[in-house]
Design brief:
The complex is a heterodimer of chains A (217) and B (280). Chain A is α/β, with parallel strands linked by helices. Chain A is 26% helix and 31% strand. Chain A has helices at 46-52, 75-83, 96-107, 145-156, 169-172, 178-189; strands at residues 6-9, 12-16, 29-32, 35-40, 65-69, 88-92, 112-115, 133-138, 157-168, 193-200, 208-215. The longest helix of chain A is centred in the middle third of the chain and has 12 residues, at 96-107. Chain B has 280 residues and is an all-alpha fold. Chain B contains 13 helices and no strands. Classes of the chains: A alpha/beta (217), B mainly alpha (280). Bound molecules: S-adenosylmethionine. S-adenosylmethionine binds at residues 45-46, 70, 72, 75-76, 92-95, 98, 118-120, 139-142 of chain A.
Chain lengths: 217, 280
Protein backbone atom coordinates (compact mmCIF):
# COMPACT_ATOMS: atom_id res chain seq x y z
CA UNK A 1 0.00 0.00 0.00
CA UNK A 2 1.32 3.35 -1.05
CA UNK A 3 1.10 5.52 2.09
CA UNK A 4 1.75 8.62 0.08
CA UNK A 5 -1.50 8.48 -1.84
CA UNK A 6 -3.70 6.16 0.22
CA UNK A 7 -4.29 7.00 3.86
CA UNK A 8 -5.82 5.17 6.78
CA UNK A 9 -7.94 6.89 9.37
CA UNK A 10 -8.93 4.32 11.95
CA UNK A 11 -10.34 1.46 9.93
CA UNK A 12 -11.40 3.78 7.13
CA UNK A 13 -9.43 4.36 3.98
CA UNK A 14 -9.12 7.88 2.70
CA UNK A 15 -7.56 9.87 -0.13
CA UNK A 16 -6.11 13.36 -0.10
CA UNK A 17 -8.69 15.81 -1.38
CA UNK A 18 -7.64 17.28 -4.71
CA UNK A 19 -10.13 20.11 -4.15
CA UNK A 20 -9.86 20.93 -0.44
CA UNK A 21 -13.16 21.89 1.15
CA UNK A 22 -15.16 20.28 -1.60
CA UNK A 23 -17.15 17.04 -1.33
CA UNK A 24 -18.16 14.83 -4.25
CA UNK A 25 -20.89 12.52 -2.91
CA UNK A 26 -21.48 13.52 0.71
CA UNK A 27 -18.37 11.77 2.07
CA UNK A 28 -16.75 12.93 5.31
CA UNK A 29 -13.77 15.27 5.20
CA UNK A 30 -11.01 14.87 7.74
CA UNK A 31 -7.79 16.71 8.47
CA UNK A 32 -4.75 14.52 8.63
CA UNK A 33 -1.61 16.53 9.30
CA UNK A 34 -1.61 19.46 6.94
CA UNK A 35 -3.70 17.59 4.37
CA UNK A 36 -7.46 17.28 4.05
CA UNK A 37 -8.62 13.71 3.43
CA UNK A 38 -11.86 12.39 1.95
CA UNK A 39 -13.06 9.25 3.67
CA UNK A 40 -13.65 6.50 1.15
CA UNK A 41 -17.05 4.93 1.82
CA UNK A 42 -16.92 1.15 1.24
CA UNK A 43 -20.68 1.05 0.86
CA UNK A 44 -20.53 3.53 -2.00
CA UNK A 45 -17.36 2.40 -3.76
CA UNK A 46 -16.40 -1.18 -4.50
CA UNK A 47 -12.71 -0.40 -4.61
CA UNK A 48 -12.91 0.85 -1.04
CA UNK A 49 -14.87 -2.29 -0.11
CA UNK A 50 -12.09 -4.41 -1.64
CA UNK A 51 -9.47 -2.49 0.36
CA UNK A 52 -11.44 -3.05 3.55
CA UNK A 53 -11.53 -6.76 2.78
CA UNK A 54 -7.77 -6.94 2.45
CA UNK A 55 -6.94 -6.11 -1.17
CA UNK A 56 -3.14 -6.30 -1.59
CA UNK A 57 -2.60 -5.50 -5.24
CA UNK A 58 -2.83 -1.77 -5.49
CA UNK A 59 -0.90 -0.53 -8.53
CA UNK A 60 -2.30 3.03 -8.50
CA UNK A 61 0.54 5.58 -8.66
CA UNK A 62 0.75 9.35 -8.83
CA UNK A 63 1.21 9.28 -12.59
CA UNK A 64 -1.04 6.32 -13.50
CA UNK A 65 -3.14 6.48 -16.61
CA UNK A 66 -6.42 4.74 -15.89
CA UNK A 67 -9.22 3.72 -18.23
CA UNK A 68 -12.37 3.42 -16.14
CA UNK A 69 -15.34 1.63 -17.76
CA UNK A 70 -18.76 2.32 -16.24
CA UNK A 71 -17.88 5.52 -14.39
CA UNK A 72 -21.43 6.07 -13.12
CA UNK A 73 -21.68 9.45 -11.46
CA UNK A 74 -18.02 9.33 -10.59
CA UNK A 75 -17.89 8.26 -6.94
CA UNK A 76 -14.97 5.87 -7.30
CA UNK A 77 -13.34 7.89 -10.06
CA UNK A 78 -13.11 10.85 -7.68
CA UNK A 79 -10.95 8.87 -5.23
CA UNK A 80 -8.72 7.54 -7.99
CA UNK A 81 -8.42 11.14 -9.14
CA UNK A 82 -7.26 12.10 -5.63
CA UNK A 83 -4.50 9.48 -5.89
CA UNK A 84 -3.32 9.78 -9.49
CA UNK A 85 -2.71 13.52 -9.40
CA UNK A 86 -0.16 13.55 -12.23
CA UNK A 87 -1.94 10.95 -14.31
CA UNK A 88 -5.34 10.90 -15.97
CA UNK A 89 -8.53 8.93 -15.47
CA UNK A 90 -10.53 8.41 -18.64
CA UNK A 91 -14.05 7.59 -17.52
CA UNK A 92 -16.37 5.88 -20.01
CA UNK A 93 -20.07 5.99 -19.18
CA UNK A 94 -22.99 5.53 -21.57
CA UNK A 95 -25.90 6.76 -19.47
CA UNK A 96 -26.57 10.46 -20.13
CA UNK A 97 -28.14 10.82 -16.70
CA UNK A 98 -25.07 9.51 -14.91
CA UNK A 99 -22.85 11.54 -17.22
CA UNK A 100 -24.51 14.84 -16.27
CA UNK A 101 -23.14 14.35 -12.74
CA UNK A 102 -19.84 12.88 -13.83
CA UNK A 103 -19.17 15.62 -16.37
CA UNK A 104 -19.68 18.39 -13.82
CA UNK A 105 -17.29 16.67 -11.43
CA UNK A 106 -14.74 16.24 -14.22
CA UNK A 107 -14.76 19.99 -14.83
CA UNK A 108 -13.49 20.50 -11.29
CA UNK A 109 -10.74 17.87 -11.52
CA UNK A 110 -7.92 18.41 -13.96
CA UNK A 111 -7.08 14.69 -14.15
CA UNK A 112 -10.55 13.36 -15.04
CA UNK A 113 -11.65 13.04 -18.66
CA UNK A 114 -15.29 12.04 -19.29
CA UNK A 115 -16.37 10.00 -22.31
CA UNK A 116 -20.03 9.43 -23.18
CA UNK A 117 -19.84 6.14 -25.05
CA UNK A 118 -20.55 2.46 -24.58
CA UNK A 119 -17.47 0.56 -23.40
CA UNK A 120 -18.34 -1.92 -26.13
CA UNK A 121 -17.42 0.58 -28.81
CA UNK A 122 -13.69 1.00 -28.37
CA UNK A 123 -13.41 2.59 -31.80
CA UNK A 124 -15.58 5.48 -30.67
CA UNK A 125 -12.99 6.70 -28.15
CA UNK A 126 -9.68 5.41 -29.46
CA UNK A 127 -8.74 8.89 -30.71
CA UNK A 128 -9.34 10.63 -27.39
CA UNK A 129 -7.43 8.37 -24.99
CA UNK A 130 -3.70 7.54 -24.85
CA UNK A 131 -2.28 4.72 -26.92
CA UNK A 132 -1.62 2.72 -23.76
CA UNK A 133 -2.93 2.97 -20.21
CA UNK A 134 -1.55 1.41 -17.01
CA UNK A 135 -4.77 0.19 -15.47
CA UNK A 136 -8.26 -0.67 -16.69
CA UNK A 137 -11.00 -0.63 -14.08
CA UNK A 138 -14.37 -2.03 -15.07
CA UNK A 139 -17.65 -1.86 -13.20
CA UNK A 140 -20.44 -2.07 -15.75
CA UNK A 141 -22.71 -4.70 -14.19
CA UNK A 142 -23.29 -6.34 -17.54
CA UNK A 143 -23.36 -9.86 -18.79
CA UNK A 144 -20.70 -9.26 -21.44
CA UNK A 145 -18.30 -7.62 -19.00
CA UNK A 146 -15.35 -9.96 -19.55
CA UNK A 147 -15.57 -9.57 -23.31
CA UNK A 148 -15.70 -5.82 -22.88
CA UNK A 149 -12.64 -5.98 -20.64
CA UNK A 150 -10.66 -8.09 -23.10
CA UNK A 151 -11.54 -5.85 -25.98
CA UNK A 152 -10.42 -2.75 -24.13
CA UNK A 153 -7.26 -4.40 -22.82
CA UNK A 154 -6.29 -5.53 -26.32
CA UNK A 155 -6.85 -2.04 -27.61
CA UNK A 156 -5.45 0.11 -24.82
CA UNK A 157 -3.68 -1.73 -21.98
CA UNK A 158 0.10 -1.82 -21.80
CA UNK A 159 1.85 -5.18 -21.36
CA UNK A 160 2.06 -5.97 -17.67
CA UNK A 161 -0.81 -3.58 -16.96
CA UNK A 162 -3.47 -4.33 -14.40
CA UNK A 163 -7.20 -4.87 -14.65
CA UNK A 164 -9.78 -4.51 -11.88
CA UNK A 165 -13.10 -6.18 -12.58
CA UNK A 166 -16.08 -5.74 -10.29
CA UNK A 167 -18.51 -8.59 -10.86
CA UNK A 168 -22.12 -8.58 -9.80
CA UNK A 169 -23.36 -12.17 -9.91
CA UNK A 170 -26.96 -11.17 -10.43
CA UNK A 171 -26.28 -9.28 -13.60
CA UNK A 172 -24.77 -12.40 -15.13
CA UNK A 173 -27.30 -15.01 -14.07
CA UNK A 174 -29.92 -14.81 -11.35
CA UNK A 175 -30.50 -18.53 -11.19
CA UNK A 176 -27.03 -19.90 -10.45
CA UNK A 177 -24.90 -19.70 -7.34
CA UNK A 178 -22.66 -16.63 -7.18
CA UNK A 179 -19.58 -18.76 -6.40
CA UNK A 180 -20.05 -20.77 -9.59
CA UNK A 181 -20.45 -17.59 -11.57
CA UNK A 182 -17.31 -16.04 -10.07
CA UNK A 183 -15.30 -19.17 -10.92
CA UNK A 184 -16.60 -19.10 -14.43
CA UNK A 185 -15.71 -15.45 -14.88
CA UNK A 186 -12.23 -16.06 -13.49
CA UNK A 187 -11.79 -18.94 -15.92
CA UNK A 188 -12.99 -16.80 -18.73
CA UNK A 189 -10.28 -14.26 -17.83
CA UNK A 190 -7.35 -16.67 -18.22
CA UNK A 191 -7.05 -16.29 -21.97
CA UNK A 192 -5.93 -12.68 -21.45
CA UNK A 193 -5.07 -12.12 -17.83
CA UNK A 194 -3.36 -13.81 -14.96
CA UNK A 195 -5.83 -13.49 -12.12
CA UNK A 196 -3.74 -12.45 -9.15
CA UNK A 197 -6.32 -11.61 -6.53
CA UNK A 198 -9.95 -12.32 -5.70
CA UNK A 199 -11.77 -10.33 -3.06
CA UNK A 200 -15.32 -10.96 -1.95
CA UNK A 201 -17.11 -7.68 -1.29
CA UNK A 202 -19.44 -8.87 1.50
CA UNK A 203 -20.75 -7.26 3.64
CA UNK A 204 -20.51 -4.03 1.66
CA UNK A 205 -22.03 -5.47 -1.49
CA UNK A 206 -24.05 -8.65 -1.77
CA UNK A 207 -22.82 -11.31 -4.21
CA UNK A 208 -20.09 -9.13 -5.64
CA UNK A 209 -16.49 -10.03 -6.34
CA UNK A 210 -13.45 -7.95 -7.15
CA UNK A 211 -10.99 -9.67 -9.51
CA UNK A 212 -7.53 -8.27 -10.11
CA UNK A 213 -5.67 -9.46 -13.17
CA UNK A 214 -2.37 -8.83 -14.87
CA UNK A 215 -2.19 -8.46 -18.62
CA UNK A 216 0.54 -10.89 -19.63
CA UNK A 217 0.46 -12.32 -23.10
CA UNK B 1 1.08 15.97 -16.11
CA UNK B 2 2.13 15.56 -19.72
CA UNK B 3 0.89 17.86 -22.39
CA UNK B 4 -0.52 14.93 -24.31
CA UNK B 5 -2.84 14.09 -21.43
CA UNK B 6 -4.01 17.66 -21.08
CA UNK B 7 -4.84 17.82 -24.77
CA UNK B 8 -6.68 14.50 -24.66
CA UNK B 9 -8.75 15.60 -21.68
CA UNK B 10 -9.70 18.79 -23.48
CA UNK B 11 -10.88 16.70 -26.45
CA UNK B 12 -12.89 14.43 -24.17
CA UNK B 13 -14.60 17.40 -22.55
CA UNK B 14 -15.49 19.02 -25.86
CA UNK B 15 -16.83 15.86 -27.46
CA UNK B 16 -18.72 14.70 -24.40
CA UNK B 17 -20.36 18.06 -23.96
CA UNK B 18 -21.61 17.96 -27.53
CA UNK B 19 -22.81 14.36 -27.29
CA UNK B 20 -24.45 14.96 -23.95
CA UNK B 21 -26.39 17.97 -25.20
CA UNK B 22 -27.62 15.87 -28.08
CA UNK B 23 -28.48 12.83 -25.96
CA UNK B 24 -30.41 14.90 -23.43
CA UNK B 25 -32.39 16.53 -26.23
CA UNK B 26 -34.00 13.44 -27.76
CA UNK B 27 -37.78 13.32 -27.23
CA UNK B 28 -37.55 9.90 -25.57
CA UNK B 29 -36.23 11.55 -22.41
CA UNK B 30 -39.04 14.09 -22.19
CA UNK B 31 -41.50 11.27 -22.73
CA UNK B 32 -39.92 9.16 -19.99
CA UNK B 33 -39.87 12.04 -17.51
CA UNK B 34 -43.44 13.06 -18.32
CA UNK B 35 -44.93 9.60 -17.94
CA UNK B 36 -43.00 9.07 -14.70
CA UNK B 37 -44.18 12.43 -13.37
CA UNK B 38 -47.77 11.45 -14.19
CA UNK B 39 -47.32 8.18 -12.33
CA UNK B 40 -45.91 9.92 -9.29
CA UNK B 41 -48.71 12.48 -9.32
CA UNK B 42 -51.22 9.64 -9.48
CA UNK B 43 -49.73 7.99 -6.43
CA UNK B 44 -49.48 11.20 -4.45
CA UNK B 45 -52.98 12.28 -5.42
CA UNK B 46 -54.44 8.96 -4.42
CA UNK B 47 -52.87 9.11 -0.96
CA UNK B 48 -53.75 12.78 -0.44
CA UNK B 49 -57.33 12.26 -1.65
CA UNK B 50 -57.82 9.55 0.93
CA UNK B 51 -56.50 11.96 3.51
CA UNK B 52 -58.85 14.70 2.34
CA UNK B 53 -61.80 12.36 2.60
CA UNK B 54 -60.96 11.37 6.19
CA UNK B 55 -60.21 14.93 7.15
CA UNK B 56 -63.37 16.41 5.67
CA UNK B 57 -65.39 13.63 7.27
CA UNK B 58 -64.79 15.26 10.64
CA UNK B 59 -66.92 18.12 9.40
CA UNK B 60 -69.29 16.67 6.84
CA UNK B 61 -69.07 12.86 6.51
CA UNK B 62 -72.28 12.73 4.48
CA UNK B 63 -70.63 14.69 1.66
CA UNK B 64 -67.49 12.57 1.82
CA UNK B 65 -69.57 9.42 1.47
CA UNK B 66 -71.74 10.75 -1.34
CA UNK B 67 -69.06 12.12 -3.64
CA UNK B 68 -67.15 9.08 -4.79
CA UNK B 69 -64.82 10.51 -7.43
CA UNK B 70 -61.65 11.75 -5.77
CA UNK B 71 -60.95 14.55 -8.22
CA UNK B 72 -64.52 15.87 -8.07
CA UNK B 73 -64.43 15.72 -4.29
CA UNK B 74 -61.24 17.80 -4.10
CA UNK B 75 -62.79 20.45 -6.36
CA UNK B 76 -66.07 20.58 -4.50
CA UNK B 77 -64.45 20.89 -1.10
CA UNK B 78 -62.19 23.65 -2.33
CA UNK B 79 -65.19 25.52 -3.82
CA UNK B 80 -67.72 25.33 -1.02
CA UNK B 81 -67.42 27.10 2.28
CA UNK B 82 -70.36 25.78 4.26
CA UNK B 83 -72.59 22.74 4.45
CA UNK B 84 -75.51 24.89 3.33
CA UNK B 85 -73.92 25.24 -0.11
CA UNK B 86 -74.46 21.52 -0.75
CA UNK B 87 -78.05 21.46 -1.97
CA UNK B 88 -78.74 17.73 -2.29
CA UNK B 89 -77.05 16.41 0.84
CA UNK B 90 -78.58 16.37 4.28
CA UNK B 91 -77.99 19.48 6.31
CA UNK B 92 -78.60 17.55 9.50
CA UNK B 93 -75.00 16.31 9.65
CA UNK B 94 -73.46 14.02 12.22
CA UNK B 95 -70.16 15.87 11.66
CA UNK B 96 -68.61 18.24 14.15
CA UNK B 97 -69.32 21.95 13.73
CA UNK B 98 -65.75 23.01 13.08
CA UNK B 99 -64.56 26.59 13.35
CA UNK B 100 -64.04 28.58 10.13
CA UNK B 101 -60.28 28.45 10.62
CA UNK B 102 -60.33 24.64 10.82
CA UNK B 103 -62.35 24.43 7.63
CA UNK B 104 -60.08 26.95 5.96
CA UNK B 105 -57.11 24.61 6.23
CA UNK B 106 -59.01 21.63 4.89
CA UNK B 107 -60.12 23.72 1.92
CA UNK B 108 -56.61 24.99 1.25
CA UNK B 109 -55.41 21.40 1.13
CA UNK B 110 -58.26 20.49 -1.23
CA UNK B 111 -57.35 23.44 -3.44
CA UNK B 112 -53.78 22.20 -3.81
CA UNK B 113 -55.07 18.77 -4.78
CA UNK B 114 -57.42 20.25 -7.37
CA UNK B 115 -54.48 22.10 -8.87
CA UNK B 116 -52.41 18.93 -9.04
CA UNK B 117 -55.29 17.10 -10.71
CA UNK B 118 -55.35 19.82 -13.37
CA UNK B 119 -51.61 19.59 -13.82
CA UNK B 120 -51.86 15.84 -14.26
CA UNK B 121 -54.51 16.32 -16.94
CA UNK B 122 -52.29 18.76 -18.77
CA UNK B 123 -49.33 16.41 -18.60
CA UNK B 124 -51.46 13.64 -20.06
CA UNK B 125 -52.32 15.84 -23.02
CA UNK B 126 -48.69 16.84 -23.42
CA UNK B 127 -47.65 13.19 -23.39
CA UNK B 128 -50.16 12.41 -26.14
CA UNK B 129 -48.63 15.12 -28.29
CA UNK B 130 -45.06 13.99 -27.68
CA UNK B 131 -45.92 10.39 -28.53
CA UNK B 132 -47.94 11.26 -31.62
CA UNK B 133 -45.18 13.43 -32.97
CA UNK B 134 -42.22 11.08 -32.74
CA UNK B 135 -43.65 7.61 -32.11
CA UNK B 136 -46.89 7.55 -34.05
CA UNK B 137 -46.81 3.82 -34.76
CA UNK B 138 -46.16 2.87 -31.16
CA UNK B 139 -48.81 5.37 -30.13
CA UNK B 140 -51.34 3.85 -32.50
CA UNK B 141 -50.99 0.30 -31.20
CA UNK B 142 -50.09 0.88 -27.54
CA UNK B 143 -51.61 4.23 -26.62
CA UNK B 144 -49.66 7.04 -25.00
CA UNK B 145 -49.29 5.82 -21.39
CA UNK B 146 -48.27 2.24 -22.22
CA UNK B 147 -45.99 3.27 -25.09
CA UNK B 148 -44.32 5.92 -22.96
CA UNK B 149 -43.85 3.59 -20.00
CA UNK B 150 -42.16 1.06 -22.27
CA UNK B 151 -39.79 3.75 -23.55
CA UNK B 152 -39.14 5.00 -20.02
CA UNK B 153 -38.41 1.50 -18.80
CA UNK B 154 -35.69 1.04 -21.41
CA UNK B 155 -34.30 4.57 -21.18
CA UNK B 156 -34.87 5.27 -24.84
CA UNK B 157 -36.85 3.94 -27.78
CA UNK B 158 -33.79 2.58 -29.59
CA UNK B 159 -33.20 0.11 -26.78
CA UNK B 160 -36.87 -0.86 -26.78
CA UNK B 161 -36.65 -1.43 -30.53
CA UNK B 162 -33.82 -3.90 -30.03
CA UNK B 163 -35.76 -6.13 -27.66
CA UNK B 164 -37.53 -9.30 -28.82
CA UNK B 165 -41.28 -9.15 -28.50
CA UNK B 166 -41.24 -11.85 -25.81
CA UNK B 167 -39.22 -9.49 -23.61
CA UNK B 168 -41.45 -6.51 -24.37
CA UNK B 169 -44.40 -8.61 -23.25
CA UNK B 170 -43.01 -8.92 -19.69
CA UNK B 171 -41.16 -5.60 -19.35
CA UNK B 172 -41.94 -4.23 -15.92
CA UNK B 173 -42.56 -7.69 -14.46
CA UNK B 174 -38.89 -8.40 -13.76
CA UNK B 175 -39.52 -9.50 -10.20
CA UNK B 176 -41.96 -12.18 -11.29
CA UNK B 177 -39.61 -13.15 -14.10
CA UNK B 178 -36.66 -13.65 -11.72
CA UNK B 179 -38.87 -15.62 -9.37
CA UNK B 180 -39.83 -17.80 -12.28
CA UNK B 181 -36.19 -18.35 -13.28
CA UNK B 182 -35.06 -18.99 -9.73
CA UNK B 183 -37.84 -21.09 -8.29
CA UNK B 184 -39.73 -22.34 -11.32
CA UNK B 185 -42.81 -20.38 -10.31
CA UNK B 186 -45.20 -19.52 -13.14
CA UNK B 187 -43.69 -17.09 -15.62
CA UNK B 188 -45.39 -13.69 -15.83
CA UNK B 189 -47.70 -13.21 -18.82
CA UNK B 190 -47.47 -9.44 -18.98
CA UNK B 191 -45.83 -6.42 -17.41
CA UNK B 192 -46.38 -2.80 -18.38
CA UNK B 193 -48.69 -3.80 -21.23
CA UNK B 194 -51.27 -5.04 -18.73
CA UNK B 195 -52.76 -1.56 -18.68
CA UNK B 196 -53.34 -1.68 -22.45
CA UNK B 197 -57.05 -1.23 -23.16
CA UNK B 198 -57.32 -4.46 -25.10
CA UNK B 199 -55.75 -6.46 -22.32
CA UNK B 200 -57.95 -4.84 -19.73
CA UNK B 201 -60.97 -5.86 -21.77
CA UNK B 202 -59.77 -9.37 -22.60
CA UNK B 203 -61.26 -12.48 -21.04
CA UNK B 204 -59.13 -13.63 -18.16
CA UNK B 205 -58.00 -16.94 -19.60
CA UNK B 206 -57.14 -15.30 -22.92
CA UNK B 207 -54.90 -12.65 -21.45
CA UNK B 208 -51.67 -14.50 -22.12
CA UNK B 209 -52.49 -14.81 -25.81
CA UNK B 210 -53.71 -11.27 -26.11
CA UNK B 211 -50.57 -10.02 -24.38
CA UNK B 212 -48.41 -11.92 -26.85
CA UNK B 213 -50.33 -10.43 -29.77
CA UNK B 214 -50.06 -6.89 -28.43
CA UNK B 215 -46.36 -7.26 -27.68
CA UNK B 216 -45.58 -8.60 -31.14
CA UNK B 217 -47.27 -5.66 -32.85
CA UNK B 218 -45.71 -3.16 -30.44
CA UNK B 219 -42.33 -4.63 -31.25
CA UNK B 220 -42.86 -3.98 -34.96
CA UNK B 221 -44.33 -0.53 -34.37
CA UNK B 222 -41.41 0.74 -32.31
CA UNK B 223 -38.94 -0.58 -34.87
CA UNK B 224 -40.73 1.38 -37.57
CA UNK B 225 -40.68 4.52 -35.42
CA UNK B 226 -37.00 4.20 -34.63
CA UNK B 227 -35.55 2.93 -37.89
CA UNK B 228 -37.72 4.34 -40.69
CA UNK B 229 -40.17 6.79 -39.14
CA UNK B 230 -42.76 5.80 -41.73
CA UNK B 231 -46.44 6.05 -40.93
CA UNK B 232 -47.66 2.44 -40.83
CA UNK B 233 -50.33 3.07 -38.27
CA UNK B 234 -53.20 1.76 -40.35
CA UNK B 235 -51.45 -1.42 -41.31
CA UNK B 236 -50.34 -2.08 -37.74
CA UNK B 237 -53.72 -1.40 -36.18
CA UNK B 238 -55.29 -3.78 -38.71
CA UNK B 239 -52.67 -6.37 -37.92
CA UNK B 240 -53.43 -6.19 -34.23
CA UNK B 241 -57.14 -6.35 -34.91
CA UNK B 242 -56.66 -9.44 -37.04
CA UNK B 243 -54.58 -11.19 -34.44
CA UNK B 244 -57.25 -10.58 -31.88
CA UNK B 245 -59.93 -11.84 -34.24
CA UNK B 246 -57.99 -15.07 -34.67
CA UNK B 247 -57.69 -15.49 -30.93
CA UNK B 248 -61.40 -14.88 -30.55
CA UNK B 249 -62.30 -17.30 -33.32
CA UNK B 250 -60.19 -20.04 -31.77
CA UNK B 251 -61.74 -19.45 -28.40
CA UNK B 252 -65.25 -19.75 -29.77
CA UNK B 253 -64.35 -22.82 -31.76
CA UNK B 254 -62.94 -24.48 -28.70
CA UNK B 255 -66.18 -23.91 -26.93
CA UNK B 256 -68.17 -25.22 -29.88
CA UNK B 257 -69.63 -21.89 -30.80
CA UNK B 258 -69.88 -20.15 -34.15
CA UNK B 259 -68.35 -16.71 -34.35
CA UNK B 260 -71.00 -14.11 -33.66
CA UNK B 261 -73.40 -16.61 -32.10
CA UNK B 262 -72.27 -15.97 -28.58
CA UNK B 263 -74.48 -13.86 -26.40
CA UNK B 264 -73.35 -10.31 -26.06
CA UNK B 265 -70.69 -8.54 -27.97
CA UNK B 266 -67.14 -9.73 -28.20
CA UNK B 267 -64.89 -7.13 -26.75
CA UNK B 268 -61.94 -8.28 -28.79
CA UNK B 269 -63.33 -7.20 -32.08
CA UNK B 270 -64.39 -3.68 -31.28
CA UNK B 271 -60.89 -2.38 -31.25
CA UNK B 272 -60.45 1.32 -31.62
CA UNK B 273 -57.26 3.13 -31.29
CA UNK B 274 -56.56 3.49 -27.58
CA UNK B 275 -58.26 6.39 -25.94
CA UNK B 276 -56.67 9.23 -24.12
CA UNK B 277 -55.33 8.32 -20.76
CA UNK B 278 -55.97 4.65 -21.17
CA UNK B 279 -57.18 2.51 -18.36
CA UNK B 280 -55.10 1.91 -15.31
C1 LIG C 1 -22.47 -0.05 -10.84
S1 LIG C 1 -22.48 1.42 -11.80
C2 LIG C 1 -20.87 2.09 -11.61
C3 LIG C 1 -20.56 2.77 -10.32
C4 LIG C 1 -19.16 3.37 -10.32
N1 LIG C 1 -18.22 2.43 -10.88
C5 LIG C 1 -18.69 3.77 -8.94
O1 LIG C 1 -18.19 2.88 -8.21
O2 LIG C 1 -18.75 4.93 -8.62
C6 LIG C 1 -22.41 0.78 -13.43
C7 LIG C 1 -22.40 1.86 -14.49
O3 LIG C 1 -22.00 1.28 -15.70
C8 LIG C 1 -22.69 1.89 -16.75
N2 LIG C 1 -22.62 0.99 -17.89
C9 LIG C 1 -23.21 -0.21 -18.05
N3 LIG C 1 -22.89 -0.75 -19.22
C10 LIG C 1 -22.06 0.12 -19.84
C11 LIG C 1 -21.39 0.12 -21.09
N4 LIG C 1 -21.49 -0.90 -21.94
N5 LIG C 1 -20.63 1.19 -21.40
C12 LIG C 1 -20.51 2.23 -20.53
N6 LIG C 1 -21.13 2.28 -19.35
C13 LIG C 1 -21.89 1.23 -19.00
C14 LIG C 1 -24.07 2.12 -16.19
O4 LIG C 1 -24.75 3.15 -16.87
C15 LIG C 1 -23.76 2.48 -14.73
O5 LIG C 1 -23.68 3.87 -14.56
Amino acid sequence: MNEEILKRIGKDFATINLNPGRKVYGEKLNKKGSKECRLWDPYRSKLSAALRNGLKEFPFKKDSKVLYLGAGNGTTVSHISDMCTDGMIFGVEFSPRAMTDFYQMALTRKNVAPILESANHTDAYKDIIPEKVDIIYEDVAQKAQVDILKKNADAFLKKGGYVFLMIKARSIDVTRSPQKIFNEVANHMYTHFKVIERIDLEPYEKDHMCLVGKYEL
Amino acid sequence: MSNELIVLREKCLVRTKKNLKEALGIPDRRIAQTVSAIGELEEALCACSERLKDWYSLYYPEAATRIKKQEAFARIVSDKKLRSEFTDITQDSIGADLAPNDIHHIRAFAKSLALLYSEKGQLEEYLEKLMKKDFKNLYAVAGAPVGAKLIAHCGDAARLANLPSSTIQVLGAEKALFRHMKTGAKPPKYGIILSHNLLQNAKHDERGKVARAIASVISIAVKVDVFSQEDNTEFLTKKLENKLKVIERRRLKKRGLEPGKEKGRSKHTDFKSPKKGGKK
